């Protein structure tokens, strides 16, 4: 926003901070419980940040909508209305994410198990901080706006006074105009979905088309699931121009019928000059074969 009173930079920053607090809390708890930290866990903060910022936008949108409905209402009723609108959506998205990652802890791979534990716990903390910490920040930001306080200095801004210079108005109000900015109307994106997109998708023929498209999508998804093969192709881990790719191609072409190579490592000192020891090693190799 151009208005230096209604600018919500700190609100957005606190939304990101909320995700950061969730990452710190979950990592601290998991490390305290002795869950191994693997390198893949370092990618978890990006997932948490995406979900946390999404929850932040939902909360802010619900708050703005409640504010337009009840301009004269108390802060308590505004926050109650915001949670009534936003909490359900935030809860469902968090629940599905947490279930998905905690189901992943059943895998036999320890690295994947650690990643799912860290990330699933972080989603829980992200939900808690969004419902508590960020809700409190919304209220504090609203009180700052009501008090006509600057977004950066938090000093009270004098609006509408003739003696204020253009520079003062530009820095403290947002424009050279001596008139305070008016409350903003409905967001253009909300207007588009309400007046144009909503009536379009509820049209009878569009509904039929949507059902057909979803049926085709579902059929393609089921077919794709039948084509999934477990495993990993090591060729996909190398660059396209890497010398490793021709090696894997030749290995698959000439040696695939022999199966994987098996190696036996003897970790103790062995008297190879002793004939009985050599015979024992050969007997062990024959048994393995």
UniProtKB/TrEMBL annotation:
<keyword id="KW-0472">Membrane</keyword>
<dbReference type="InterPro" id="IPR051697">
    <property type="entry name" value="Patched_domain-protein"/>
</dbReference>
<feature type="transmembrane region" description="Helical">
    <location>
        <begin position="115"/>
        <end position="140"/>
    </location>
</feature>
<dbReference type="GO" id="GO:0016020">
    <property type="term" value="C:membrane"/>
</dbReference>
<protein>
    <submittedName>
        <fullName>PTHD3 protein</fullName>
    </submittedName>
</protein>
<dbReference type="InterPro" id="IPR000731">
    <property type="entry name" value="SSD"/>
</dbReference>
<feature type="transmembrane region" description="Helical">
    <location>
        <begin position="9"/>
        <end position="38"/>
    </location>
</feature>
<keyword id="KW-0325">Glycoprotein</keyword>
<feature type="domain" description="SSD">
    <location>
        <begin position="1"/>
        <end position="140"/>
    </location>
</feature>
<feature type="transmembrane region" description="Helical">
    <location>
        <begin position="44"/>
        <end position="63"/>
    </location>
</feature>
<keyword id="KW-1133">Transmembrane helix</keyword>
<feature type="transmembrane region" description="Helical">
    <location>
        <begin position="83"/>
        <end position="109"/>
    </location>
</feature>
<keyword id="KW-0812">Transmembrane</keyword>
<dbReference type="InterPro" id="IPR003392">
    <property type="entry name" value="PTHD_SSD"/>
</dbReference>
<dbReference type="Pfam" id="PF02460">
    <property type="entry name" value="Patched"/>
</dbReference>
<comment type="similarity">
    <text>Belongs to the patched family.</text>
</comment>
């Amino acid at each position: 926003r151009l208005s230096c009173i209604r600018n919500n930079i700190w609100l957005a920053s606190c939304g990101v901070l909320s995700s950061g607090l969730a990452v710190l809390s979950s990592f601290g708890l998991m490390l305290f419980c002795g869950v191994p930290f693997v390198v893949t866990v370092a990618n978890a903060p990006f997932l948490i940040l995406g979900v946390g910022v999404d929850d932040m936008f939902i909360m802010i949108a619900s708050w703005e909508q409640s504010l337009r409905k009840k301009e004269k209402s108390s802060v308590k009723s505004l926050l109650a209305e915001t949670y009534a609108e936003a909490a359900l959506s935030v809860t469902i998205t968090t629940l599905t994410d947490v279930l998905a990652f905690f189901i992943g802890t059943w895998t036999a791979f320890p690295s994947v198990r650690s990643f799912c534990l860290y990330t699933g716990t972080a989603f829980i903390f992200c939900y808690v901080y969004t419902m508590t910490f960020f809700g409190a920040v919304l209220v504090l930001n609203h009180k700052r706006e009501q008090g006509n306080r600057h977004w950066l200095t938090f000093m009270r801004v004098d609006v509408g006074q003739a003696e204020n210079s253009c520079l003062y108005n530009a820095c403290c109000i947002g424009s050279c105009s001596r008139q305070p900015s008016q409350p903003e109307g409905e967001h253009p994106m909300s207007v588009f979905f309400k007046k144009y997109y909503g009536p379009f998708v509820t049209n009878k023929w569009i509904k039929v088309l949507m059902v057909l498209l979803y049926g085709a999508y579902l059929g393609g998804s089921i077919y794709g699931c039948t084509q999934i093969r477990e495993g990993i192709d090591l060729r996909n881990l190398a660059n396209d121009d890497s010398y490793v790719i021709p090696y894997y191609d030749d290995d698959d072409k000439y040696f695939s019928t022999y199966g994987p190579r098996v190696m036996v490592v003897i970790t103790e000192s062995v008297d190879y000059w002793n004939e009985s020891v050599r015979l024992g090693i050969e007997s062990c190799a024959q048994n393995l074969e």
